[in-house]
Amino acid sequence: MRSGNGLKVGDQPAGGIGAAALVLLALGALVALAMVALPSESRAAGNEVRISGKVYRFNHMDTPIPGAVIKVREYPGLRAVSDSVGDYELEVPDDANVTPYLVAGDIEPGGNPMSNHYNEIDLQTFHPRGDDIENANFQTPTDAEYIGLKAILGVPSDPADPLSRPDQCVVVTTSSARNVRGVDYQTFWDRTPHGVAGATAFAAPAVPGPIYFNEHVIPDRSETASSADGGIVWDVVPTGTFRMIGQHPTTRFASFLATCAPGRVVNANPPWGMYELSPGEQPLAASNVAAKPLDPKVKRQGRRARTVQARIETAERIGFDARLVRSGKKIAGKRLDQINPGTKRVRFKVGPKVRPGKTRLQVRLTDRSGVTVKTVHRLRLPKISPGG
């Protein structure tokens, strides 16, 4: 299947739990692997797509959370509530940047807050392109587990309040192996540990870290690459958007975008996040290039000049390449190595010798992992005065 932008959508990814779940060892607890369904993208209709998944207590695959509230950072008016088995569905705008997050709450009325109250968690930032996003699951720590996570990593926060949010942002993911994708839950569980050993990761723009989980499932600052566990965590990330990119001598991984602000914990856990790709396989379209061109047009300036104009809306630093094409040949264009997050207006001139009429504008946007999204827009060049 191909997404709306022409990117090939390969096998549906699945993977292990996010690395954050494993920090329970700091409390001396035995870590039970959390259930994660297989991810997929299915064709959506209209100008909205559906994000769906399950909300469950982390380290307890048998504890789905009903009544959990999911919102979207970019669209405060959107919300969904999980049903009796923890499943949720959320309609979001298509071709837009969306960062779902779970609002903190209680698993059930009453109870010990340390084991009953769960904490706010963000997912990665998606950019859907015509396809529904399935199995975007939330695994959320209770207060005891949250305190353990902060303690083992030494995350800077208010020392007077063990439940305080991070001073900056924490980002977690897993270099999940290909053999835990596209399988049923029992097989997924049987193939624990889920990680690819020897993977490294970095953030663009650069931030300190990451920290890799060792073979004993403990974040270990002396490790220089992932273990078979696959856990990777950046414990201090400043405000901004960061593309997290994985590397390995013999395999490839999808990248993901983390949108950070003070107090956030971003868990880009499998089946999304940094999942292994088969040879020749492309990442799912929603993982890539959190950007799009807006309202491209041609304007005549006076009687003798024409300019192609477009606005580029992006949540991350990207490369830009625009080509005005007719009959397969480039007749004008512009290339920028870097466009920073925000909305930028881009212009370039069309030569006076180019005849008026129909043409196509090809826009290529490239994220820091090297993945490119191409869109094509039909334009019409106006006439200009002879001698222009």
Keywords:
four-stranded antiparallel beta sheet; Immunoglobulin-like; single chain; 388 residues; five-stranded mixed beta sheet; 3 helices; disordered N terminus; 28 strands
Structure notes:
This protein has 388 residues and is mostly beta strands. Helix content is 5%, strand content 42%. It has two domains: 19-286, Immunoglobulin-like (Sandwich); 291-381, Immunoglobulins (Immunoglobulin-like). The protein has helices spanning 113-116, 143-153, 185-190; strands spanning 40-43, 48-57, 69-72, 75-81, 87-93, 100-102, 105-106, 117-118, 121-122, 131-134, 138-140, 169-174, 200-204, 211-213, 219-220, 231-237, 240-247, 252-253, 256-260, 264-268, 276-277, 291-301, 305-314, 318-326, 329-339, 342-350, 357-366, 372-381. The strands form nine sheets. Strands 15-14-16-12-20 form a five-stranded mixed β-sheet, with no helix packed on it. Residues 1-43 have low confidence and may be disordered.
